[in-house]
Amino acid sequence: MTTTPELRLPEPRTPDPKAAPALRWGVLGTGWIAERFVAALHAGTRQRVVAVGSRSQESADRFAAEVGAERAHPSYAALVEDAEVDVVYIATPHTSHFEYARLAIEAGKHVLIEKPMTINAAQARELRELVRARGVFAMEALWSLFLPRFDIVRQVLESGALGRIRAVIADNGEWFPEDHRIMRTDLAGGPMLDLGTYPYMLVNWVLGAHEQAHAFGQRAPSGVNGQTAAITRHAGDAQAVVHTTILGASPTAATIVGEEATIELPGPFYMPGDVVLRAADGAELDRWTEPSVKHEALHFQAAEVARRIAEGSTESPYRTLDDTISTLETMDEVRRLSGETFDGA
Ligand SMILES: NC(=O)c1ccc[n+]([C@@H]2O[C@H](COP(=O)([O-])OP(=O)(O)OC[C@H]3O[C@@H](n4cnc5c(N)ncnc54)[C@H](OP(=O)(O)O)[C@@H]3O)[C@@H](O)[C@H]2O)c1
């Protein structure tokens, strides 16, 4: 066992979000995350929401007035046909991401699709094909990967400073009221797609695709899955332990365990927050700290989308469609093993 006392965390290389070329955004769906995304976008970038699409004129009008958008469309179809929109942000429940992403892509629009991109890998593969055929930009809104915090982790992983990585341990648990959509079986409720996207993304990012999995799950009173624990085996004798729950709050922390050093991401690990670097003997070597803002940091991913579209790319290298599909393949397998099915999937 070796310790490397001189090991330090690098500074994040995240580009200034305000420097990203300004695009005209259309927002599809006017719910909880759409409101936060637009607030972050307008506060932290030069991007502008110019149009909103909703299932009702009333919601479209209300949201457009709130965010200062010029046009309020009474349908998603009308939004994607808006010639003055460059990129559509899809912010509807999981079960409809596939349908509305397809609608926007077929209308020739670039898309940023809320996580999870689709409810399963099969749908994501179909979208990937469509995206490639149409030549538009598409990305799952896995905002964590665009935060300065995650760029520090990215650099540490790239440097090999952790030594051989043996484990990723990640959890995401949150309490929700009974009337939240996460309790609804018809909207693919349960923790997997809302909360699990983050730890399964982290595992996939650090360890790659799983080779083998075991999983157990239990139901919540509403009939959706309540919690799931999974163990996966990966190349290089590495393994991951992932837990997700809506039955109570949990630390929502993550640890990347290397033979030379370990990275801890105190909870909530997928939002802005600290990065702790520990030597193999557990001694703290370095700590990066930032203000613990939450969804105010959603704009980093929007700036990435704008930069990539402006340079003519159809994907971001930090969240490729292949990565999204690989993550969903593990989530599909964990659901199969734990007996978790969604209506129609
Ligand atoms: N990145 C993050 O941190 C984060 C956080 C929360 C949620 N999310 C993701 O964002 C997505 C939306 O979550 P949310 O919490 O914003 O949901 P929400 O508050 O329920 O809003 C969803 C919106 O989608 C539209 N919609 C279309 N079909 C619908 C249907 N059948 N039932 C209900 N609404 C429907 C509605 O807008 P109109 O009435 O205008 O059509 C509604 O306001 C989810 O996929 C979730 O995973 C991401």
What's the topology here?
Layout: E1 24-28, H1 32-44, E2 48-53, H2 57-67, E3 71-73, H3 76-80, E4 87-90, H4 97-106, E5 110-113, H5 121-134, E6 138-140, H6 148-159, E7 165-173, H7 191-207, E8 212-219, E9 225-234, E10 238-245, E11 254-258, E12 261-265, E13 275-279, E14 284-288, H8 299-310, H9 321-338
Parallel strand pairs: 1-2, 1-4, 2-3, 4-5, 5-6, 7-10
Antiparallel strand pairs: 7-11, 8-9, 9-10, 11-12, 12-13, 13-14
Helix pairs in contact: 1-8, 4-5, 5-9, 7-9
The structure holds NADP nicotinamide-adenine-dinucleotide phosphate.
Description:
The protein is an alpha/beta fold. It folds into 2 domains: 17-144, NAD(P)-binding Rossmann-like Domain (Rossmann fold, 3-Layer(aba) Sandwich); 159-291 and 320-338, Dihydrodipicolinate Reductase, domain 2 (2-Layer Sandwich), CATH 3.30.360. Helices cover 32% and strands 23% of the residues. It has helices at 32-44, 57-67, 76-80, 97-106, 121-134, 148-159, 191-207, 299-310, 321-338, and strands at residues 24-28, 48-53, 71-73, 87-90, 110-113, 138-140, 165-173, 212-219, 225-234, 238-245, 254-258, 261-265, 275-279, 284-288. Strand 8 (212-219) and strand 9 (225-234) form a beta hairpin. Helix 5 (121-134) packs antiparallel against helix 9 (321-338) and helix 7 (191-207) packs across helix 9. The model has no long low-confidence stretch (mean pLDDT 96). Residues 29-34, 54-55, 59, 91-94, 96, 114-115, 141, 143, 181, 194, 295 line the site of NADP nicotinamide-adenine-dinucleotide phosphate.
